[in-house]
Amino acid sequence: MSKTPRKQRLSVYLDPDVMKALAAHAARRDLSLSLVAEAGIASFLSPDAAERQEAATTKRLDQLDRRMARMERDVGISVETLAVFIRFWLTSNPPLPEPAQVAARAKAAERYEAFVSALGRRLAQGPKLRQEISEDISPAPANERSAES
Length: 149
Prior knowledge:
CopG family transcriptional regulator
């Protein structure tokens, strides 16, 4: 009857931060420190470790790329929204006569403060308008866009 070889004992010195991370990881997974350390060393020495690291890096880069694409889309929506609003506002509101401009500026400051407060409440409560906009909205055909202009 052959016996399975016993595991070899190894003593190592770890920085306190590394030891805390090792202990926390082992506790989260309900594993022994020895088992987690052995798996980590085996992974480090594995010939496919570089491939796994490259796959993990590629996955993370893909996530970042998708996040950047969403940010670009959101900025595009914001710019278009602002441009449409400004065009509408300028065409529907004639300039004020000189005497009324002082009162209008005072009222504008008051309204702006109310707007900033409302915006703060909206951002605090979520969800954001940009999250409500469907990501699969297709752009309008060229003939519809030219009719809007």
